[in-house]
Amino acid sequence: MTASFRPPSRRRALGLMLAHGAALAAAAALPAAIMTVGPAASALDFSDAAVPLPPHPRSPAADGVRLLVLPFEGIPTTTGDAIYREMRRKASKRKYSLAMQLSDPASFRVLIYFSAVTTGSGTTILYRIDIFDPSGRPVTRLFGEELGPTATGDPWSGVDKKTVEHLAGRLGEQLQAWVTRAAD
């Protein structure tokens, strides 16, 4: 008898999505806990999480802010490279530039974490963007999700060129919206 793949039931899919969401929430808390510093710092101290960010002292210069995008986490290298190349291609139309090497000076460092899960409606790609100042202090955290084509087995196998282009565009839009945010 040959085993065949059967998509999970709605109840099972919901359970998987909830479990995936809990895992993503735990992953979101981990870097903040690791980066907590100071003698009285607690790994679970999130008292400053709701404090709004101060506005930029001035609008970005004509050539924009320089961002250093660190290697992606949680994504296959080939897919990550394709997204990064597309982000670099589209960056020339944005109010920021991307640093070419890890040793290049930058206004901010950007670390992007990815996670993907296959659901009945396609592959859901969740991402978190952590932005740090040059000294490594966390500045802000952005979240997003995209829906890609359905995949069997590895959820990343369903990510095609169109999804890569769309995802890179969304990441770039979110970074630009943050860089050019208005003073409150």
TrEMBL record:
Q: Which residues, if any, are the signal sequence?
A: 1-25
Alphabetic keyword roster: Signal
Give the superkingdom in one word.
Bacteria
Q: What is this protein called?
A: Lipoprotein
